[in-house]
Amino acid sequence: MEQRYLGQSGFKVPALGFGAGTFGGSGPLFGAWGNTDAAAARRMVDICLEAGVNLFDSADVYSDGASETVLGAAIKGRRDQVILSTKLSLRAGDGPNDVGASRHHLVRATEAALKRLGTDHIDLLQLHAFDAMTPVEQVLGTLDDLVRAGKVRYIGASNFSGWQLMKSLAASDRLGLSRYVANQTYYSLAGRDYEWELMPLGLDQGVGAIVWSPLGWGRLTGKVRRGQPLPAASRLHETAGFAPPVDDERLYSVVEAMDRVAEETGKTLPQIAINWLLRRPSVSSVLIGARDEAQLKQNLGAVGWTLSTEQVVRLDAASAVTPPYPYYPYWNGMFSERSPVAVQAG
């Protein structure tokens, strides 16, 4: 498994990581994703480690903490072999302070996550969303305290806008506090908004992308097609309301372009979607998930081969969207050779 630097942290992570959202399986959203118990989770961890995938990501809101509990049980006795990543700051209780990034909530939520995971430290702790009600200086001061206490190794953000992430990074630099080194972000052939602002920011500021939902919330598996009803077994029936929006016609065009690449390469659509992401600038790791061993092994087949330049061009064209001002090509084209994305892409 290829190892990549996580931004400019000097810390390496595998090109593929495992998203433990299917562990636990409770509630209207996560119950539809999967309900992997500790025994099955341990087997999935075995398969991942054999393939060189040692990054495991969860969150305190995944199945109300059950995902972290199952993950902790699955890695018991081999903590030193894995990189543990989790997220917090979304509502995780009924109390008025069971949400957000206040010092009160961050400290309590981190302690609770450590207990559920059965560990004394979290390798990568990420804020699941930006908290506009708590000053960034306080947020970063608290996270820095957790790092200095040895309870957290690195910190990251998730679902931040460009200005929110940059404001936080500037505060860290100004105050000499721990800096976000990771941005866990939605990015796929079905949703390329990350490229408009967050990708250039990541390249400029040394923040590595950890991609969630690389299959566009299940839309890039090949089960969603033009002129065909949504399969009865699709989780989109229960979870579409949580999914990032996508234009249906554009999605069908992307899937059809992927079909042609699949014929040429002998690879599955999920493997093609993940492989495309691994070529993109600023991407440190792509999180794969699975309900069962067969699905996991298929997703692991996304590495060890490379799309041709011509195939990438076709996929790029099929999935392209005109960005909003001030990111649309007319303006960017004037300075494209000087942009961090152009330099990185070479």
Please outline the major beta sheet. Answer: 8 strands, parallel, barrel
What name is given to the CATH topology? TIM Barrel
Strand segment tally: 10
- Fraction of residues in helix: 40-55%
Which architecture per CATH? Answer: Alpha-Beta Barrel
What number of structural domains do the residues give?
Answer: 1
The fraction of residues assigned to DSSP E strands is: 5-15%
| CATH class group | Alpha Beta
Uncertain segments = none
Derived from helix and strand composition plus strand pairing, the structural class reads alpha/beta
CATH homologous superfamily heading:
NADP-dependent oxidoreductase domain
Mean pLDDT: 90
Instruction: Figure out the total of helices.
Output: 14
Q: For the CA atoms, what is the radius of gyration?
A: 20 Å
